[in-house]
Amino acid sequence: xxxxxxxxIPKLGFGLMRLPKLEDGKTIDIEQxxxxxxxxxxxxMKYFDTAYVYEGGLSEAAAKEALVDRYPRESxxxxxxxxxxxxxxxxxxxxKAQLATSLERTGAGYFDFYLLHALGKGNYQxxxxxxxxxxxxxxxEQGLIKHYGFSFHDSAEFLDQILTEHPxxxxxxxxxNYADMEANxxxxxxxxxxxRKHGKPIxxxxxxxGGTLANPPKRVMDVxxxxxxxxxxxxxxxxxxxSMDGIITVLSGMSNIAQMADxxxxxxxxxxxxxxxxxxxxxxxxxxxxxxxxPCTSCRYCTPGCPMEINIPGVFGxxxxxxxxxxxxxxxxxxxxxxxxxxxxxxxxQCGQCEGECPQHITIIDxxxxxxxxxxx
Length: 377
Fold this sequence. Notes:
alpha/beta, single chain
């Protein structure tokens, strides 16, 4: 494998966005977090990922207490992120102030990896308007950050545009998992290929798709069990991504000691998937595709003419979370987010304009009715 930034960093990273909580469900369990950090460090792992907005800022504070205050600074890598949609970020000054706040919260002195957070078409201009690309370059020159990049949630075409406009970024962070490799709304494979084309190493988020691939549909789990009854579903997901070329590390948002122990059991002495194991993943992908789901490609041809302004692709994305992964709670949360600014599925007046526009010939009216019945109750 050719040289690239971070090639010697262990392939499991600790994502500090789903930290364990005390009984109130809000306060971070700092003692359990310390134990998890100790397990991680003892196993030779080094990469920790937080963000200005994680846990309302408490994630960065937890990183200080559980990690920075207890280990030599040169013994680990710490990443955090600047977000123009963060609470209180209203102009260029408040956006730039996030770096100083993050340094104060963590006490880290500098960040090894610093990211502009969750770039997509909806917020990309704000990062330019606030001159944040120049800001992070200046921060690197000042020694406040070692490497800068961005995390990304949009199309491969848009990623290509950003990397063409900003060819000097050191790395990028992408959502990659075996379930989303060909998904039209995530485009894991296409985004990965764009990153490789531009020669950018990658930190990976959502390798277990928000936890859904730790408990995949039974038919998928049966595929994994037949191949190796002792391997967890999460291990297949994380090892799949960690086996790809150009990966700095794979972030796992671990929430308890048991998850940490499981991840370390196969990542402490990581071995890339062999040919037979890659075939198992391919079979699991085929089984996933065979599960009933709405064949929506998020082209959005259906939405401009909707008189009720229903976010039809967003509704269907939430519905698929239930259909494919049997994750009703997650589907309802996703449905709530996707119908905040517009009509709910139940608002459909069955005018049929959407079905006339849909290139996939989806029975949209019927699916909206099913979505309303399931996700609005």
